[in-house]
Each structure stands twice: as structure tokens, then as C-alpha cells.
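Sample 1 of the test manifest.
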Amino acid sequence: MTPKTTSAPALPRLAWRNIWRHRRRTWLLVLVVAYATITTILFWGVQDGFAQSVQVGNARFLSAPALITTPQYFEDPDPEQGLPSLDFLPRVEAQPGVKAAAPRLEFPALIRSAYTADAVRARGVDPLLEAKVSNLPGAIAQGRMLEQPGEVVLGQQLAERLDARLGERVVLDTSALAGPQALGLQVVGLVKSGIAPVDRGTVLVHIQDARVLTGLQTATGVALDVTRGQEARIAEALQPVLPENLRAYDLTQLLGGLSSAIGTKQSSTFLIGMIFSLFAALAVTSTVLVSVLERTREFGMMGAVGMTPPRLAAMVTLETVFATSLGWALGLVLGYALNYWMATQNVLGPVFASYGAAWEILGIGGEIYTAQSPLYALYAALTIALAALFSILIPARRVLALNPAEAMRTE
Amino acid sequence: MNLRFLLLICLLGLGPSNAATDPQAVLKAVVDNQRGGSLRATLTLNITRPERQTQLVLEVASDGNERAITWVKAPPREAGQAFLRVGDNIQLYNPTLKRVLRLPPSGRSDSFLGSDLSYSDLAGRDLEQDFTPRVEAESDTEITLELLPRPQAPTPYGKLVLRASKPGFVPREVLYYDQRGQAVRKITFAQWAQVGGRSFPTQVTVEDLLRPGHRTQMVYSNYRFGVPIPESCFTVRALEAGC
């Protein structure tokens, strides 16, 4: 039986000392792992951030980052189910995280030109407040935003279908609390967002006109602009300051099908992320393997002085764990710093914008930020764990099969 | 005294002339002719399309103002359907479903029984309410009014040109123009019935000028004006059971 040459606690010490004996090789491994960690963090940050950007972008065109309304209206969007009062607005505006609040009155309507008619969902807005909670005013390609009652802003494709031009009149017919009502409105602006439902269906009217048409003197909801990425939390936090019969909904609830579609895409992204981690782990393993091959003679010597192959393998694995842990820590610091920069500055927006209209169709509106999550450290750790596992399977097995006499003869 | 007499002659001379050319008064007279008062009649709808022609027979009862009820009698495939109009509210009875449906806003532009009339036309908003008239031309036998939409009036048209014959301001033709000056729709009136001093047109033709060959002719027959129409006629129950 071969006597033990090192005690168990001595093995980590030996491994730690070994990694600093070959500083250049260790730093190479640390840098490879740091690189894998940084790219893992950025991969997930960009993936999640892109999904969030699509959600927020669409929310700002189709709905809002958060919306206060009655549960009845949320289930059945009929103006008759609108807000009983707007007295709660000052309390909501004073809440942390709420950047702006804009009452809206949405209603189904028929829009008519001299040539044809179309069923639409019109949105009555306060022109000054709407720009704070919606991207629509900023997406007016021709003409201008509403300024007063009697005006209407249409989606460009809808205007084309109605054959209504800037300065011409269209008629809005609806039926709600006030019974059947109709109003002639002058087209003052055309929206071109690149999002099909927006360009096909946008009808923005002054909230005063919406009140005349529907007979509802308040609004159907209050759209909120809230801190990005905090929509669900802020919507939840608003609940105590709202009257009993009102609820705050965040964008995932408001977008419905779109959020589900993004969720489905995230599942497939997770698989891609796993493959990505696998390749990163293999890159780390190959670096470890090269270092093992370079140290064959050294391992032969250690075997000759009595270190058993399993202990040699354990030492190699421990060296890998130490070096990769250092790389992981370094990668976390650099990766999160870089991710924070990209999460707070619109670095990616101009890059993606250069790809043209294809990105606009997704509704990201030229602003793409990365997401931040502690989970990314865990994903990166998974890469490191995989690397350690491969190190046990490949370089450490090679050490296990080492013949000290042959190894010492290796040049 | 002579001066007073002269002034009186001048006023008498100007009086009738001013009344004749007051566009608002002319428009009211034209619209009054079309209203005709309470009415029961058979209405034949001849719908012409480039590839086919369809005829529908309807029974109509109206109070001459805000309320009307219409039952489809022929052809058999369409028979049984009924429409109740009370102001801008329109309800439909579908005999297949045996249900009364309220016309949603999105259905207002739909074609009424496949004709060139829409449900919005049936709601019959008042020309006096939505347009400002101006006399465009006038002769001894005819007057032409140009009707411009009032601000925020619910009409998508740029202007209407209404032609009526004198005396009596009997409606002859209405041309609907888009906002670029192109005529898009024409309504022609013919065959007038004399009712209480009014000339009610019993033959109305609607033409879609954007789609050649699309035309609907409405002909009133068996008409009885001034008959009392019971209140029960303008109820949902009357859609199915009649009155």
C-alpha cells in the first residue's frame, strides 16, 4: 500500500501554491474563465434586456408600462365600466417610481371617410400628458400631435385604408353611456411606428371629444410611466393607495398574448444559453488540459515521491476550481459593471437601429437596454461547474492514468 | 305719406324675394318635403350591380320623424327580417336566430340588405343640423344649394350640392362630394306624391359614383300618409309580431 504523502487539508494548500507557481498559465486560465463569465452575463443581460425592451416598447405603443383601471373594464373594455372618479390621481403621482400619470378614455368606434369605414378602438388622451406615458406622439411621421378638441391622429395604414389625408375630416361613431353619438374630426397627424397593430389601428382623439362621444366624464384608465423593469413591483405597491374597486396592472398583464410569446422565446433562449455555457466550459477545460500536458514530467516526479494518482487528479481538479473561481469572481465584477453600463445607457439602441426597419417592427423604438439579475452570476457559475466537471472527466482522468516512470521521461 | 307708401312697396317687393333665397328656409322646405309625415307604405328596393339585379319588397311604417319600422316581405330568403329605428338607435330582428340584435357602431357602415344605403343612412341625420347652406344658383324654376359641413359635424363629405325645383322646393338631386371636390355619391328623386301641401318623392335612386354600375332604386307604393301609427309599432315586439 502506498503511504499518504500529504494530509487532506494539505491538498488544497498544495493546489493553491501550485497555481501561483505557474502565474502566466494561471492568469491565462483566470482570463479565459473571466471572459466566459463576462460573456455569459452579457448574453443573458442582452437577451432579457431585449425581451424587456420589446415589451416596454410595445407597451408604450399599445398600452402603457402600467395602467390603473377597474377589474370590470380590464375583463370587458366597455366605457360603461370606466373609472368612477379621478380623485386618486394626486396620490398615485406622489408614489415612488411613478414618473407620470395620464388619464385615458378608450372606446370602440366606427371611423368613416367619404369612401369607406372601419371598426377601430379610439383612445381619448390629454395631449400634454400622453407624451409622457406613450411613444405614439413621438412616432407621428406626418403632421403633428393633437392640440385641441376636434382633431384626430390616425395610424398611417388606417389613413391609407380610409383614403383620409392630413387636413381632411373623418367621422367617429360610437355608442356608450350617451347613446349613439358621432363627431367629425380633422386629421392632424399620421403615426408610423413600424408596429402593424399601431399603424393599422391608432385613433387618438382629445379626451374632451371622447367624453362627449361616450358620455363618461372621467376616463377608462390612468396610464402610468414607471421605473423600467419595476413595473410589476410598482403596480403591486400602488394597490394600497388606490380605491377599493380599482387595480393597477403591469405591462405583462396588459400585453397578454405578446408577453406569452416573449415568454416562449425565453424558453428557447435558455437552451441556447446552455449550449453557450457548454462551449465556454469546454474552452476552460481545453486550457486546463494543455496545462496538464505541459506538467506531465512534474506529475511523474510527484508520483515518484509517493503521491497517488487519485490525489494527483484531486489536486488538478482543485487547481482548476481555484483558478476558475478567481476567474469567475473577476468576470462577475467586470461583467456586471459592463452590464450596468449597458442597462443605464442606450448603447445597443443605435447599434440595432443600424439594422433598419426590421427591428422597428418589434416595437423597440430605438431604445435597447440590458437587464440586470443576480441569476446571471448563477448561470456563469454553471459554466464554471461544467468546466470543473470536464476537468475531472478529461485532464484529471489523464493524470489518473499516469505512469510516473514514463512521465518523468517526458520532455 | 308718399314716402311711407314707397317704403311699403319696397318691403313688399323685397319680402318674398328674401324668403325665396334664404338658404336655411329653402333647406327646411326641401327636408320637409322629404319627411312627408306619418306613413305606411310598401317599399320596393331594386339593387343593381354590374353582374346582377336584386329586388326586395319591404313594408314600412314611420311617424315621419325619428321612428320607423321596416319588415322584409320578399324574396323568401330575406323575408322575416325587420329593422326598428328610433333616432340613431337601430335594432335588427333575425328570424333564423329568432333574436333581436342592437346594431353596433362598427355595423353602421354596413350595407342595408346589400343595397347602396348604409345603416347610417337609415338613421337619417338631419341636413339642417349638420350643414350650412348657401345658394349657389337660382332661376325661376330651380334652386341649387351648396351645403358645407358645420364644424365637427358627423359627415365625412366635403360638401353636398342639393338641387330643388320651384315652386315648393321639391327635391330633385343631391350630389355628395369628397373633400377634394370629387363627386362620390348621387341621390336622385322622382315621382312625387302630394301630401298636405308637400311633394313627397316616391322614387329615390342612390348611385355610388366611385363604383360604376352600383345603384339602388327605392319605390314607394300603396302609400298612406297621415295615418295614425300606434306606439306599439315602435317596440322590439313589433319587429317579430308586426303591428
